[in-house]
Amino acid sequence: MDMGAIFCIGGPLIRETATINLQASATADVVNNNRLSPNGFTSPEEKHNSARCWQVFVYLPTLDAIDQSTGVIGLTSAVKIQESGKYNVSLLADVLPTDQKNTRYTSHWAGAHHVLSATEDPRQQKMDLETFKVMWELSTPGTDTAQYFMRLLQTEYYSDPKLLPPLDCMPDYVFHDSATLPFNAKVGVTFKTVTIDTPNYLLFLARRFTASGGKIVRASVQHINQVLEGGADVFTGASNPTPPHAVVVCTGLGTRFLGGIEDQNMCPELAPPEVRAEREPTLEDVLPLVIEEGCGLRPARKGGVRLEFEWRRAGEKEILVPIVFNYGHGGYGFQGSWGSADIALTLLEEALEAKV
Asked: What are the beta bridge partners of residue 194?
């Protein structure tokens, strides 16, 4: 099959059109944060080439679309697809991890502490567990990637045993004897998990993506048909834009406004009541701890995460193009990122195999 293009999209509205010099764009971050690689984003010396190699494009979050899962979900999906060895991925992006923080790029502000939740959704639990396995390996002491994580020992108490998540699969799990539990607690457990240094972890994902052959392009997408009909060529000034073979949509809250998709089930989500104080908090309670201010809205979706694919016709020839959807993760963006990327890659491969 001829070379084609796959788009992994993560944001609907972009203001600029330019090919990004990743080496240069990382310079400011390298200067201000000595934990980053001194080379910023690295350009790959080799790219994947094979008889069945497709070209892939990823579109990240935007100035207008507020989305937690878009940043980490889009980047992780791009990495997963690119590293499969079957695709050449490009990201069509507005706000990059190397850009200044702003309130419209939520992944920068995420707490990103990985703890399983009690849920009746087996798919969500599987995504969370698969993600934890990857992050636990990345956080291995002495490795280059350990700097993006903090391993810690955590103890949790529950007044209702039914609320206890499947934490027995976590490292160093201990179930506490009932005699040691504090007042009103029915269950107590201790285990190890990780907290993520989100800004630097996002930079790591971007570097890993470009090092494996990926490319990032700033673009402006108002409607999904722009991508379906011309791929990245529409945004790079190519004289003969070529339709892609497939599109992967990771637009989070932006999916509500992306022309041709406009998923009205997407809505912002606030932190649940149980994380709030029992009394009315005051500024004085936290002011000594404040180092900077930030805001991000969880990209929740009525009906849950959308992970599926559908077919669309593109261009004058009405070529069939599959669109893989991966969005609506709410507060589970970092926690389920690698697991959802696995599913997105599987859906992508199923779609393309059906197309052959």
From this structure: 151
